[in-house]
Amino acid sequence: MKYRSVIVTRKGSPEVLKIIENDLRAPLRGEARIRILASCVCSDDIRARYGQSPIKPKIPFVPGYAIIGVVDALGEGVTNAAVGDRVGALTRYGGYAEYIFVLKKRLIPVPTTLDPAEAVTLILNYVTAYQALHRTAKVKAGDKVLIIGASGGVGTAFLQLGKLADLRMYGMASKSKHPILIEYGARPIDYHTQDFVEVIRQAEPNGLDAVFDGMSGDYFDRGFSLLRRGGKWVHYGNPLSVSGLLLLLAKFILFNVLPNGKSVKGYGTGFFEFNRRPFLEDWAKLFQLLEEGKIKPIIMQKLPILDAARGNELLESGQVVGNIVLLASEVA
Questions:
Q1: Residue numbers of the domain that contains 74
Q2: Does the pLDDT of residue 246 top 70, yes or no?
Q3: Residues in contact with 241: Cβ distance below 8 Å, sequence separation at least 6, in sequence order
C-alpha cells in the first residue's frame, strides 16, 4: 500500500514542494501510525523550507509542525492509545502527508466531538499563546500587554485568549488587518505608519505588564523600555540562524541582569520534550474551551493536504488573517 506526502526538494520558494509516493510500512516498536485528518501551515514551515533555522532539517524532508489524525495501527509497546482513537501530535516535521508515524510519548488525546480543522490550530498556535500568557508571563485580569504580530495564527490566538483573561491589549498589524484586532478588544497599531513605542508611551505612561514578540526585527531593542518595573518581555518562535540564536541569548543575559526590575523570558514548544505534563494539561483545557465555544479559531483558508504548496504561498503573501489548515479529503 502507498501513501503520499509533500517534500521539500531544495531550499526556496513554494515551488520546491513536490508530492511523492511512499510505501506504507508497519509501525515500529513504540510508534503509532496515524492517518492524518488535518495539518496546518505555520511560519516555522516556511523558515525550514528556506533553511532559516539554527538546526536545519536535512533535505528532502516533509514539513508540517502539528497534526490531528486517527490511530491506524500500533507498534509493540504502545499502550496509551488504541486503533481508531483521535489524537494530535506536535510533530515539527511530517505533517504534510496522508500518514505519519509518531512515538507514543508524543500522542495527545483529542475529543472526537471537535472539528479537526479547528482542533489542529490548538496543537501549536493556541498552546503557544496560552502558555506564553499563563505560564510564562503569568498575566492577570487588567494587565496591559502588547502583541507583536497580532493577526496571524498565533496572534489571533493571543487576541482570543487575552480577551478571555480580561487583558487590556495592544496589537501590531498592517492596517488591513485591524478589524480583527478591534473585534477582540485590542487597540491596533499599524507598524507601517505608526511608531509603536510612541503610541504605547502616550497610551500607557506607566508602562506595560507584558510584551509578546514572535517576530524577527528590532522590536526588542526599541520596545523593552515600554515595560513597567516587574514587566516581562516574552519571546517565542525560532531564530532564523545560529548567529541569531546566539544574539538572542546574549540579549536575554544582558537585559535580565540590568537593575530595572524587568525581565526577558523565552518560550518554545521544545520544552515539551522535557516536561510533557503542563502541555497535556493545557491542551485539555484548550480543547474544553473550544468545545464550550469560548474560543473559535479563525481559519482563512482550508486546502487539501497535498495542496500544501498553495498554503505556503498564501502564508508568504502576508495577507493571511488567522490560520491556513490542510485537510484530508474525508473532512475537507
A1: 2-110+298-327
A2: no
A3: 52, 53, 54
